[in-house]
């Protein structure tokens, strides 16, 4: 005999009541994810969302972690500027302040959000905000945790590599777009590391949005008698510079070129010289002198699953091809996991989700298992960085592979055994021209004019250094100035103002 319909309804109501009761008992954590809506960013909301959902699912599946917590995730557009701050404030005013913020990635967006969140005692965890400035946690960025290796960590890598090869100095060559300034901030991280250790740097920049005269740039590097060139630019510009260097006879092992390509793994590696144009052969030869610095990739079985899932979710949205699973996507997954660990630990110590500073410090100075491998956060709340160097190991085929790695936690740089290095084996020796012995070095053909060249070069270098410093000050000034304004309505104007002043600085 089946139960009557009325009894069924009664049962169903009971079940519903029971459910809503447990819902009230569960504590709710409001997460705010602030990332760009624009899918041309590798870390847009659509691209990162599947990783966040994956992380939340794995937290839910772990009964011992946070069984009584419900996560409420809101997504807001950060754009790549002040929109992030506006949306954070709007969310707080119209609804409530979030318990934790994930993002923003873009430097200018992250600066404002991290400052306000620190003031509100809300933890901010980002897979971006990679600029040097965010290292200063004492006051304005006290609540910021960075789960991706910042540019200054990459600076440590270059430093370790320079010590290994016993190189003395370098030229930093970068493209500055004045807007988001990714290469500027990247190179700033390297510059800081070298400066702290007293290495000499020459700095040179150009604007890729205008015509870039690669031959002129290479001539200027040559005239300054530099031997190691560290570049940050688009892959096409890097290729043009390498072609120019090849034409000017600088690809015969006397010079070393570095290309920084941290995020877009499809641009580095095999065939990055190849374009299917008439320069391919020369480019292949030139790239024998080029090494690429990138993130060290580690893989474990769980990563495969994650990668497949993220990829299929993103493909459903028919976004343009590219790296579906990149450092940012991975990083936000690991950010959620880190927050869950910290929350679990402080709750069990009797604190609450509102104890922002406690939560933040619980996340720092620890190593935990991320989706692709162990993640180590230093005592200042910044992730240690592991990086790899890629070089051409087969000049005939033009194929490249990883030749060396840097382990940030240990601060160790080592070459991989069993790879055929373009320069033979061991250290890459560089014969730095000695200015005081210049006249005796016949093979260099140095004469009177070369000495002038060196003096002019040194002068130019100082000029560029000053420009660089000026830029840095400018960045700080605009940010500080924006900070002082409490009136939110004025921010848009200030942002425009800061763009204008950057343009005039260029
Ligand atoms: C990655 O690099 C490739 C090749 O240069 C380019 O086509 C693609 O747009 C880049 N993707 C992103 C997300 O920057
Ligand atoms: C390049 O290709 C070779 C052979 O096809 C492969 O062994 C190597 O791992 C590749 N390197 C990279 C960086 O993809
Ligand atoms: C991948 O996910 C599926 C379910 O979606 C699960 O059955 C499988 O065990 C997972 N594999 C790994 C290696 O975690
Ligand atoms: C970081 O943790 C280690 C132990 O894991 C401890 O010895 C050290 O004092 C901690 N450092 C800071 C700055 O808290």
Automatic annotation (TrEMBL):
Residues 48-393 form the Receptor ligand binding region domain. The chain crosses the membrane at residues 450-471. It is found in: Membrane. Keywords: Glycoprotein, Membrane, Receptor, Signal, Transmembrane, Transmembrane helix. It holds the Pfam family ANF_receptor. SUPFAM superfamilies: Periplasmic binding protein-like I. It comes from the Eukaryota. GO terms for cellular component: membrane. Gene3D superfamilies: 3.40.50.2300. This is Natriuretic peptide receptor 3. It comes from Leptobrachium leishanense. The gene is NPR3.
